[in-house]
């Protein structure tokens, strides 16, 4: 396998620290190469400059495709001077994957305010920027761990706007993209999807809202007619206990917290953010820059390690119809 490209993310956050820790944990298991300014790595880090990603396979220290961001790192204090370097590292990572020099992209957390202040960054976040680089109009955010996969149909919008943002077209796109990714990237030949309702008790037959009757149920019926294995709309408060989770491979939720609260409750440290619908594999740790602990040596690299391992398995699944080689398939979740 070609190495996984790791974009450095916000230098003032914990990105450099967890990247080095992940390399130490996954050395010999997951090949990787880091795109960033080596002066931003934790003090004492043994690193090795490589001219191409292929050289990372034989690196004896943390492999770096080096670049100069023009300003030192001050943990906990982002500087706009780093913004263009952070953006370029993401774009270069995409290019390396698209040209086959890397097998997947794993992105460290960014700080949008610094990117806007320093480089007029025009995107709400990583997901939208990656979609633009890939020329894709519709992508989907999945959060995944060993026990659960969740997909929010709407993401970072006020709760009051969720009903107006839901539509048959957008919900259909979300479900179809998720269904295709479970087959291609997770080695699940016949995905089972569970779809939550929007309202308490999935609307209680219209007594607590009509979105289930007017929008969600007809959309699911149409997709079932196309052969998809879908249950719902379901009451969200009964979807996430162990017996329920055993009946599906991914849960489609109607809004951000409906999806993220259960997965962060089940596995706060090991959740992985996956962008579905891209022509390449992209994962990310499911946390932010953690400015409050940056530079203290206390950052937990568990999510970054999980993101790299998941990226490697997804890349392998795309390379073979039989799914990831060896071990337990990603489709075989714990309940």
From TrEMBL:
Substrate binds at residues 126-127, 264, 273, 282. It catalyses: 4-(phosphooxy)-L-threonine + NAD(+) = 3-amino-2-oxopropyl phosphate + CO2 + NADH. Binds 1 divalent metal cation per subunit. Can use ions such as Zn(2+), Mg(2+) or Co(2+). Pathway: Cofactor biosynthesis; pyridoxine 5'-phosphate biosynthesis; pyridoxine 5'-phosphate from D-erythrose 4-phosphate: step 4/5. GO terms for biological process: pyridoxal phosphate biosynthetic process; pyridoxine biosynthetic process. Its cofactor is Zn(2+); Mg(2+); Co(2+). Keywords: Cobalt, Cytoplasm, Magnesium, Metal-binding, NAD, NADP, Oxidoreductase, Pyridoxine biosynthesis, Zinc. Its main location: cytoplasm. It is found in: Cytoplasm. Its EC number is 1.1.1.262. Pfam families: PdxA. Signal peptide: none annotated. A divalent metal cation binds at residues 156, 201, 256. The active site is located at the dimer interface. Homodimer. Belongs to the PdxA family. Catalyzes the NAD(P)-dependent oxidation of 4-(phosphooxy)-L-threonine (HTP) into 2-amino-3-oxo-4-(phosphooxy)butyric acid which spontaneously decarboxylates to form 3-amino-2-oxopropyl phosphate (AHAP). This is 4-hydroxythreonine-4-phosphate dehydrogenase. It comes from Pseudooctadecabacter jejudonensis. The gene is pdxA.
